[in-house]
Amino acid sequence: MATNNNMICDMETGVCGPAGDDTTTMEFIDLSVSKKTIDLYYVTDPICSHCWALEPVLRKFIHQYGHYFNMHTLMGGLLEKWGDGPVDPANGISGPSDVAGHWREVGEHSRMPIDGTVWYDNLIESSFIPSRVYKVIQEKHPKLANTFLRRAREELFAFNKNIAQDDVLIDIINQVGLDGEEIVKQSKLPEADTALHEDFQLVRQLGVRGFPTIVMMNEEQKGVRIVGARTLEDYANTLQRLLPDETITPKQLSGLDQLLKEEKLLFSREIEEFYSIDRTEVEAFTQQQLLQDAYTVTSLLGEKYIQAK
Fold first, then answer.
1. Closest-CA residue to 203 (of 100, 26, 53, 72)
2. What is the pLDDT of residues 8-51, one digit of tens each?
3. Is the pLDDT of residue 163 over 80?
4. Phi, psi at 153, each rounded to 5°
5. SS3 assignment for the chain
6. Residue 84's pLDDT band (boundaries 50, 70, 90)?
7. Measuring CA to CA, which residue among 225, 265, 283, 275 is closest to residue 112?
8. CA neighbor of 123 nearest in space, from 148, 95, 151
């Protein structure tokens, strides 16, 4: 579990939270419990800006190579609560408002838009609150858990909503197709907190300190821990190293109509990454792939996004 004095995000390593004293971002690790397939552990947090920046790459990696691994999303606990004094003065973080500039920098660097003024206008009390909601959905409606996480991040990073507030969470959960009031109610029970701390325990066992981190383990419990937001090639090459006896083959990508149906909203950067096209090609590609009355185009912080009607 990360401590509260690590809200700074490093542009070079792509890590929210401490990356450790050394500069190694990929290292071999060895655990003891045997499994039969590749297990991928994605350690993240609802308010992790570099996790938001990773979404275009991670989505494509899962679509193309997800048939080779079982994916487990773990909550890392980036922010339990804010204290009364300076949080991380060495890195210019004296309070919540200092995070806003940091987020905007991550957004500009990744081209996944981040507004960040929520830190001025409507303080995010704790990332544990939406994390507990995630754990409830993950247990009771596992297929919708990551959909909820995506929607929550859209509302937080792009649209400046405080996802630690009950009314915002209820609305997001309702949009996913679940009972928002009931899920939020359950997230405040001791069972949800227990489930969250079980994630924290596993995260510690995996040796993870910063987010995002992806750990891939083979059936011999030998694997690789990849810290920070990396490229598609990094993840694919790591998977290949763990499956040396076969040549991994990416699945064919779905069309933009199917992708938008699943995702509801896609930023230009996500379309570029998914289909390996240039930024200048997105408009023509979208018009070619989609019916004109099936989507809308909007600009946010200098970046365009499409949304299903």
1. 72
2. 677 777 778 765 555 556 767 665 443 347 999 999 999 999 99
3. yes
4. -70, -35
5. CCCCCCCCEECCCCEECCCCCCCCCEEEEECCCCCCCEEEEEEECCCCHHHHHHHHHHHHHHHHHHHHEEEEEEECCCCCCCCCCCCEHHHCECCCHHHHHHHHHHHHHHCCCCCCCHHHHCCCCCCHHHHHHHHHHHHHCHHHHHHHHHHHHHHHHHCCCCCCCHHHHHHHHHHHCCCHHHHHHHHCCHHHHHHHHHHHHHHHHCCCCCECEEEEECCCCEEEEEECCCCHHHHHHHHHHHCCCCCCCCCCCCCHHHHHHHHCEEEHHHHHHHHCCCHHHHHHHHHHHCCHHHEEEEEECCEEEEEEC
6. low
7. 265
8. 95
Paired tokens of 163: 């996802």
Spatial contact of 49 and 228, defined as CB atoms under 8 Å apart: no
Contact 192, 128 (CB under 8 A): no
Q: Please name the residues in contact with 245: beta carbons below 8 A apart, sequence gap of 6 or more.
A: none
Sign of the Cα torsion 141, 142, 145, 147 reads negative
Among 74, 83, 72, residue whose Cα is nearest residue 43: 74
- Give the strand pairing for 38-44 and 213-217: antiparallel
Residue bearing tokens 């990396």: 230
| CB contact set of 292 (below 8 Å; sequence gap of 6+) | none
- Chain segment 205-256, per-residue pLDDT in tens: 999 999 999 999 998 888 999 999 999 999 999 999 999 988 999 999 999 9
| Confidence (pLDDT) at 6 | 62
Assigned token pair, 147: 């959909």
Distance CA 100, CA 114 (A): 9
Length of the chain counted residue by residue: 309
CB 42 within 8 A of CB 231: no
Q: Which residues pair with 188 in a beta bridge?
A: none
The side-by-side arrangement of strands in the sheet containing 303-308 is 265-267, 303-308, 295-300
